[in-house]
Amino acid sequence: MAFGSLPTPLGEMTVAVTEDGVAGVGWDDRRRLTERLAEQGLTEVDDPARTAPVLAELADYYAERLKAFSVPVDWRLTTQVQRRVLGTLYETVPYGEVVTYGELADRSGTGVPARAIGSIMGANPIPIIVPCHRVVASNGLGGFSGGTGVESKRWLLTLEGYLQPMLDWG
Fold first, then answer.
1. Within this chain, do residues 98 and 153 fall inside the same structural domain, yes or no?
2. Active site residue 132
3. How confident is the model at residue 32 (pLDDT cuts 50, 70, 90)?
4. Do 86 and 38 share a structural domain?
5. pLDDT tens, 94-130?
6. I need a surface site. Which of 69, 72, 128, 141 has the fewest CB within 10 A?
7. Which domain holds residue 24?
8. How far apart are CA 151 and CA 112, in angstroms?
9. Which of 105, 132, 157, 159 is catalytic?
10. Residue 58 region, left (φ>0) first, then alpha (ψ -120 to 50), else beta?
């Protein structure tokens, strides 16, 4: 696996890319990504050419030049159920749209209850590319474990145009 990172408005973002695709994305958690991928028998390699497309697409996303990722995804850090739920999210909820936890539970056809969908979103190893920030509660934003938490989710949904920018009265 090869690692790369880039600064974002939400903090330094690290990516882990295997020969099959991007397997991990996170804010300041390279050690955790390394450990999880090492459990899969992967060792670290220095391969900037492997990480460059992922970093470029993430940079374009944050710069509002990219609405759909095209880099391949390596699902190896997910279980079969997680893969089905996250794959459904990845394939059916485009930029600027959201789905509730309950709606995603129904769409995935897994029989997983809405509350468990939240746990799957919290364990998503590939946030932003697999857009767990687009999953909301029926009565609000719901939680978010990336970046600085719910404020990062709010920022991402504003970037995508789903939420209106907040007024600064100061």
1. yes
2. yes
3. confident
4. no
5. 999 999 999 999 999 999 999 999 999 999 999 999 9
6. 72
7. 2-62
8. 27
9. 132
10. alpha
